[in-house]
Automatic annotation (TrEMBL):
Name this protein carries in UniProt: Enterobactin synthase component D
Any Pfam family: 4PPT_N
Catalytic activity: apo-[aryl-carrier protein] + CoA = holo-[aryl-carrier protein] + adenosine 3',5'-bisphosphate + H(+); apo-[peptidyl-carrier protein] + CoA = holo-[peptidyl-carrier protein] + adenosine 3',5'-bisphosphate + H(+)
Residue numbers binding Mg(2+): D125, E127
Oligomeric form and interacting partners: EntB, EntD, EntE, and EntF form a multienzyme complex called enterobactin synthase.
Domain 4'-phosphopantetheinyl transferase: 121-209
Similarity remark: Belongs to the P-Pant transferase superfamily. EntD family.
Gene Ontology annotations of biological process type: enterobactin biosynthetic process
Amino acid sequence: MRYPDLPLPPVAGGFILSCHLNHSDPLLAVSHFDPQKYHDALAVEWRIPLPARLQQAVNKRRAEYLASRLLARSVMAELGIDDFILTNAPDRSPCWPAGIQASLSHSAGIVVVAATRQPCAIGVDVEQLMSETTAQETATLLMNEQEQQLLQTLPISFSAAATLLFSLKESVYKALWPQLHQPMDFLDAALTSVDFAQQSATLRLTQHFSERFARGTLLEADFMWQETQVITLVSHRL
């Protein structure tokens, strides 16, 4: 997985700082935005209405919503679906067009979207590097003893390794939710291997969710670092 480097058409106004994609499959796109430059008139200008639940939300939350919907529309246009507006199901999961498997994540001024027409369970996540204190405090909730030992072998700090693990498990959850609509615990998937040179990893389900996602099912993932952020992508062919 490489960091998206093909520019999408620029957006005037200073809110969207950059927007790039790559044409891999799954297609991956990333957008950087400035929450301080958000104002409600942008949503009107770009014909992306804010839902009622965000009418009283803080600007940061509305900025994330607008930036993510704008990137989703650009990605769908690349797949031949014009003027797409991403909405949410009652469980807050995104409603993608028929025949499209996709996932979205945002964090601190960045939005990432992954999408494919292939029959895949797909999940993408972006996380900011957690502090060493947070990594230590959440270790027992996030990882088992074997995972902790594996993370300590990686050529990065424990906080960076814990951030990677957290993001990988978030991507697993996002990939499986549209298929199962079942909640998952962090320990329901275990990291079994990491190839840091190839930026790839494998996770194994430790619980039985369905015939397709039985205990022991292996899920392949890719990851990449960009400054203090990590992006992870899980894609599992159905």
